[in-house]
Input
Amino acid sequence: MMVRLPRPAPHEVTTRVPECSIDGRPASDATICRGCVDQLVGVLRTVPALVDELEVTLSRQARVGTRNGPRGSETPLPFHLRASVDLETLRDGLRLWAGAVAERRGVALDAPATAGGYAAWLVRWSGEVAQHPDAAELHGDVLSMAEAARRTVDLPPTLHFVGPCDECGADLYCGAGASTVACRTEACERTYDVAARRAWLLEAAVDQLRTAAELSRELPWIGGVVIDRKLINQWAVRGKIEKFLPHPRDPMARPRFRLGEVLELARATAVERAAKVAG
Output
């Protein structure tokens, strides 16, 4: 005997819940699911810290030109190229996506023109991001940009850059207390005096402009004197060093100082202190 199952009433017919275009999980009224939105928001919130780390990498100068051949035959690079590219990619990529979300929603993109500003704006409008037709592409772009930036700043924080190897051009890194550094390139392994390498590195960048925060990270290791931002600003107020206008792209509008002037004053301060101790 065949048993007929009752047909569901019209109001009992279920509708298919939309699926996330990234992982296929339920995404009610959205293009991507809540889990993917939370992952995206988490990455966006790391952008300010990534920007800070990239700026520190810029200040290290991953390559200042080689020393092979006559001195002065090559112009030192004023920045770490990869970190510079990552900074621009983060800023421009986040601006484009924030602009796309703002245009679709019909709202103003009222965010500071920085990577951190655009990231914060996207976090604030994360609900609209989830509903954007290209949310999956946005998600992938942001995660890829952040991962590229993390690879650039992935060196352990205890290592210091001391210039390129004279033989093979590989970057040399060592700990803060090291007296010598060996090239890690296979079949090279040349050894260098750290103090001499660091001195040459700074001398090659004497005409570059740095903020007080950047200088306070770079100079104490070579000058033997603890030089913090407060001391640098005091020197500027007293007219011992010249204060330059902030970089046009610096959202914090921080004044800059010529590295060479601060380096000379740091060395003079070290000599004066040594004389006082000897006297």
About this structure: The chain has a mean pLDDT of 76.
